[in-house]
Amino acid sequence: MISVSNVRKLLYLRQAMRNQWLKKKEIEEIQRRMMRGMIVHAYDNVPFYHRKFREAGVTPDDIRTVEDLRKIPITTKKELKENFSDLIARGVDPSSCWMPRTSGSTGIPLKAAYGRRDEDYQKAIALRPNLACGQHLRDPWAVLTAPHHILDKKHWFQKLRFLSPTFINIFADLQEQIRLLEEMQPRVIDGYPSALYLLAREMKRTGRKTINPEIIFSTAEHLSPEMREGIESTFGIRMYDQFGCVEMGRTAWECPEHAGYHMDIDAVVMEFLRDGEPVASGERGEIVYTGLYHYAMPRIRYAVGDVGVPTDEECPCGRGLPLMKEVEGRSDSFIQTPDGRIYPQMTFWAIMRTFAHAEEIAQFRVIQERTDAITVPVVRGKNYREGIDEEIRRHIIGVLGEDVKITVSPVDELPRDPTGKVRTVISNAQIQW
Ligand SMILES: [Zn+2]
């Protein structure tokens, strides 16, 4: 039976599919109107934001344009965690909400509440890139994911009997994952880049060509150039990366032109800031979100901890959704030297490339314990030899300099974080932007 909620989801989806082709100015006007609605709602119905606005001397009348949002102070992760009940809008019963949780890989585990309508809108926005990249309603679709996602509430489209993904547990043995995929023969595979990469590497190693997806999406982790290359060359197709977070939902995605990531500005406002000021086109900035449909639990000027590069360039596809040029991963995926230089994790992929290709190492991680101390556990590859650790150490010192104490040590395996993600670069030091 088709429920009211499913009809609403389909209407949202149709609207989202239309919006992408509007002119940029037209979508910006939709964004502005949604933003106004959200600000009035948050001021009137959400104790946390009512207080925050009052303290900053701001009323909804002061926030007419997206630029005006800057009059409102940032909301931090810590605030989101500590004020959960004050962030729930009046009249909303939290127990009726969908509440995805973050992994806490950044040290602050969070939950976000989505009301029924919010959730319907979020699902439509999440589905838009898949359809835009050629996925069809009845395609066999495999999603490589961690068990806690599998146990989440079933996807709404499963109940509609189309767009129904089959979940593959990435904690299962790799051979078992491959067996399931061979049996299923998905046209579409979706998953964490690290899970896709491990799968691709195994297929390549064994020379098997038994899984032949036509579309691959990656999501939820930073996709390094190495991983992209490994996955694309194994399956012989270009893949599409998608961007978002548990707190805000899907927010940006690659279209078939691969010219950057289209931002879902009919779902969120994305600001890119450095020292509290917007960066110019082409510059790296910390992403601050304002949710436009997150009514049960508004998130206004929320600093999620991700970093990206906005651009004024237009995509040849003709979609009016503006582009973000690059996703550089979380701000705790950067390494900072004592003299203030900041390196994204790609730097370390570049350094390790030769060792990885020669199969001297199988995997590595870079952990900044303190500004002046970095440890690099490496999993031995099949061609591992004496002296590799020292060579790697020298290469890293060659880039970062002598002020940092680098310790490279071989290990048997690198633990995944509790959500199943494999993070390459982890900083426990506070980055000074
Ligand atoms: Zn495009």
Automatic annotation (TrEMBL):
Domain of life assignment: Archaea
SUPFAM superfamilies linked: Acetyl-CoA synthetase-like
InterPro entries the record matches: ANL_N_sf, CapK_Type1_Caps_Biosynth
Protein name (database record): CapK related-protein
